[in-house]
């Protein structure tokens, strides 16, 4: 019995909890992508770097607050800096919309032109981030590190496996839930949110009924920037901030948005968790787990890892291909062609 | 006629720039730039086929170029006999399992009617094959990687002439492109972009981590060359007399001579591809491709199979990129998987195509030359600019040090700006499509 409990705790500690945190971060990122896709109808390649860009401002403000001795006690100071970071990110994103995308909207350019333009924006943002904060790892988490420490958990339960929950993980889940509730309330209950959904469903009809397209587009960018900055900051608190990692997050986020169905917010959340759980479950070495649930005194020889961690991006890629092969509209029937 | 003049003018300016670098910096630098310009031009040609002819957005150029690089190792490096012995029959068994899995899964997928059962069966076969592969193949890779890890630790290649790697690299890239294209073409255009982005990251990850095949981050160095080595040249009599008759010193001239040899080889490939692309673009096939690009619906109504044509041109373009990737690795003489950065290999090539003129082969070539030239020269220029801007500041101010350190990242911003500006104000490029 204790073996089974131990096995369960082991799995919770290394798979379940990290996957929930990572899944929430991906879901927030994918929500931004899916919103942009639903309203502006292109895949925004700059989204990963928008995350990095917003997070960079959060880090700068965090450092500034820390230097002035302001902090939130057990919670990371970054939480206090978050609104300022979001504001900077919104500002920049709105400028890029004005200077870059608006022109193509007027022209009614093909989606692929937007995608190329977003690649250009990605370059510029990536360059700015590297220019200001450098290409290296930055840690900006402070306050308490753990909600439950592995050792305390062991003492408490008397099991040989410990379970730890980091503050950043708890914070991620709470923030993600609050943000998602707020977002759905906004999309379903407010006038602006409803007009956004109408615009996404049928652009011409929405325009005919007097919806202001500029406002819809503006609100979409603002929401995307808010979501990206929050997702980026949570990811940075949980792991660490490195511009290139954020660029690489683009693939799992796209995969999450497509798995759920592009343009569908519920789908983006589901997709985020599907990708996160598959990625972590497939790259986790099950050796110890099998030793617990297997016959007594027997341990497998290898690591029992389905795929090396180096290939974690392959997981989201393969899921992406499978979805495109079998159900191109995604789980929640978004827009496909 | 006017078009011809424009071509001549732009390429004349380009030649002049290279000559200026040759005179003021050194001929060695100038020729290194020229060689990479030629390779970049070939890559840009490949991308231009996909984007300019057909409007396909490939964000995985890096991956296809890396496959070309892998081909150079697999073809040209001498085989590591002890590693082959260590691998034994396990290698063939692994290969057999892999091929069998692919065949069984494909046959099942083709023969069975579309149903949940088929999906489950195909998934089961794939997973079973993968697990068997891991069980039988993992010990083999360990054995291979244990053979003198500091020097070899990989299988090596076939020991064939390195020039053969160029077409093989193209074939490898084409094969991967076929799989990706088969799945994503016919769906939304964005999907191809996302899928190519993914596959290129995965290809580079494979090169970095599959040590038994590519030595991973330990790099494969000392690839055989298609041209003579400097030291051999310096020792040979005819070369010494040639250098003497030109009044150059033997050592310096030998490295210039080697670079000239490379330039000659690359130029031949470039001209060949350029000739073929021009021929193709002017043929009925090229007109059909452009018709499809400009209006897929009407082309479809005319009975053209849009998806099949897209797949065809996507594979062709990737083959060209693969060849260029193999050429690049040949020029470097080494495969360094960590050097494959999306910025350098994917997005830079895109800037070349957009700036040069999408749809026009000469434009793509010109873009390759110009952008590569400025990419290389932007670093000294950026540093110079930063020094100028910060010259008024205190010499030991932190901000100044930071700005000068970060000058390298200016390249990214500059390239992004060039891409955005070209797309906005000169969407047809320097040499527009005729």
UniProtKB/TrEMBL annotation, chain A:
Please list every transmembrane segment annotated in the UniProt record, as residue ranges: 20-40, 52-72, 78-100, 112-133, 167-187, 216-237, 249-277, 313-333
In which compartments does the protein localize? Cell membrane
Name the InterPro entries for this protein.
ABC_transp_permease, BCAA_transport_permease
Keywords recorded for this protein, A-Z: Amino-acid transport, Cell inner membrane, Cell membrane, Membrane, Transmembrane, Transmembrane helix, Transport
Q: How does it sit in the membrane?
A: Multi-pass membrane protein
Concerning Pfam families, the annotation shows: BPD_transp_2
The residues forming a coiled coil are none
Q: Which family does it belong to?
A: Belongs to the binding-protein-dependent transport system permease family. LivHM subfamily.
* Name the record gives this protein: Branched-chain amino acid ABC transporter permease
Name its species.
Amylibacter marinus
Automatic annotation (TrEMBL), chain B:
Q: Where in the cell is it found?
A: Cell membrane
Q: InterPro entries under this entry?
A: ABC_transp_permease, LivM-like
Family annotation (CDD domains): TM_PBP1_LivM_like (cd06581)
Q: How does it sit in the membrane?
A: Multi-pass membrane protein
Q: Where are the transmembrane segments?
A: 7-27, 33-49, 56-77, 89-109, 116-137, 157-179, 191-207, 256-277, 311-331, 343-359, 366-386, 406-425
Keywords for this entry? Cell membrane, Membrane, Transmembrane, Transmembrane helix
Q: Which domain of life is it from?
A: Bacteria
- Write the protein's name: Branched-chain amino acid ABC transporter permease
Organism equals Amylibacter marinus
């Amino acid at each position: 019995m204790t073996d089974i409990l131990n096995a369960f705790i082991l799995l919770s500690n290394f798979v379940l909890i990290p996957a929930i945190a990572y899944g929430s971060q991906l879901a927030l990122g994918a929500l931004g992508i899916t919103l942009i896709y639903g309203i502006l109808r292109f895949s925004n390649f700059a989204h990963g770097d928008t995350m990095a860009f917003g997070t960079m401002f959060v880090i700068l403000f965090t450092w500034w607050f820390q230097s002035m001795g302001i902090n939130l006690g057990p919670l990371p100071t970054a939480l206090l800096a978050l609104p300022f970071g979001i504001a900077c990110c919104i500002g920049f994103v709105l400028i890029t919309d004005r200077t870059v995308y608006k022109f193509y909207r007027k022209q009614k350019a093909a989606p692929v032109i937007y995608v190329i333009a977003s690649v250009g924006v990605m370059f510029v943002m990536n360059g700015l981030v590297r220019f200001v904060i450098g290409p290296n790892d930055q840690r900006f988490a402070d306050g308490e590190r753990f909600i439950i420490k592995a050792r305390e958990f062991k003492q408490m339960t008397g099991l040989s496996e410990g379970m730890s929950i980091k503050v950043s993980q708890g914070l991620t889940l709470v923030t993600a839930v609050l943000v998602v509730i707020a977002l759905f309330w906004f999309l379903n209950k407010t006038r602006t949110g409803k007009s956004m959904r109408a615009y996404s469903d049928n652009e011409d009809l929405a325009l005919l009924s007097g919806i202001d397209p500029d406002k819809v587009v503006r609100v979409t960018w603002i929401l995307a920037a808010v979501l990206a900055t929050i997702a980026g900051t949570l990811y940075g608190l949980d792991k660490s901030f490195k511009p290139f990692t954020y660029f690489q997050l683009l693939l799992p986020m796209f995969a999450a948005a497509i798995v759920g169905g592009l343009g569908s917010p519920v789908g983006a959340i589901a997709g985020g968790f599907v990708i996160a759980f598959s990625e972590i479950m497939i790259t986790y070495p099950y050796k110890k787990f099998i030793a617990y649930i297997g016959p007594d005194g027997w341990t497998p020889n290898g690591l029992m890892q389905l795929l090396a961690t180096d290939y974690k991006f392959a997981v989201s890629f393969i899921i992406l291909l499978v979805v495109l092969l079998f159900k191109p509209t995604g789980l929640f029937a978004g827009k496909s062609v | 006629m006017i078009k011809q003049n424009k071509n001549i003018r732009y390429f004349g300016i380009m030649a002049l720039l290279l000559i200026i670098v040759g005179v003021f910096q050194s001929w060695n630098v100038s020729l290194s730039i020229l060689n990479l310009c030629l390779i970049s031009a070939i890559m840009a040609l490949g991308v231009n086929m996909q984007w300019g002819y057909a409007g396909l957005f490939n964000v995985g150029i890096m991956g296809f170029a890396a496959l070309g690089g892998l081909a150079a190792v697999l073809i040209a490096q001498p085989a590591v006999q002890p590693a082959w012995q260590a691998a034994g029959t396990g290698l063939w068994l692994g290969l057999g399992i892999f091929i069998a899995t692919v065949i069984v899964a494909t046959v099942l997928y083709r023969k069975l009617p579309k149903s949940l059962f088929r999906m489950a069966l195909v998934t089961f076969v794939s997973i079973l094959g993968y697990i068997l592969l891991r069980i039988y193949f993992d010990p083999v890779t360990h054995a291979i990687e244990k053979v003198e890890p500091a020097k070899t630790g990989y299988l090596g290649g076939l020991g064939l002439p390195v020039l053969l790697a160029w077409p093989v690299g193209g074939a490898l890239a084409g094969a991967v492109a076929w799989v990706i294209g088969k799945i994503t073409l016919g769906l939304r255009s964005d999907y191809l972009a996302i899928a190519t982005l993914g596959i290129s990251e995965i290809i580079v990850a494979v090169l970095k981590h599959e040590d038994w095949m590519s030595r991973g981050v330990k790099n494969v160095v000392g690839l055989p060359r298609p041209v003579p080595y400097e030291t051999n040249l310096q020792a040979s009599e005819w070369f010494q007399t040639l250098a003497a008759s030109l009044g150059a010193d033997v050592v310096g001239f030998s490295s210039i001579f080697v670079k000239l040899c490379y330039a000659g080889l690359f130029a031949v490939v470039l001209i060949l591809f350029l000739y073929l692309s021009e021929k193709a673009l002017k043929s009925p096939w090229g007109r059909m491709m452009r018709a499809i690009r400009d209006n897929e619906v009407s082309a479809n109504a005319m009975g053209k199979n849009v998806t099949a044509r897209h797949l065809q041109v996507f594979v062709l373009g990737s083959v060209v990129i693969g060849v260029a990737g193999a050429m690049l690795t040949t020029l470097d003489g080494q495969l360094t998987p960590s050097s494959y950065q999306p910025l350098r290999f994917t997005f830079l090539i895109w800037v070349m195509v957009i700036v040069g003129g999408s749809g026009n082969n000469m434009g793509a070539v010109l873009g390759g030359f110009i952008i590569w030239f400025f990419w290389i020269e932007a670093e000294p220029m950026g540093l110079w600019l930063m020094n100028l801007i910060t010259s008024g500041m205190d010499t030991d101010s932190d901000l100044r040090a930071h700005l000068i350190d970060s000058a390298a990242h200016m390249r990214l911003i500059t390239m992004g700006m060039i891409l955005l500006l070209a797309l906005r104000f000169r969407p047809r490029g320097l040499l527009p499509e005729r």
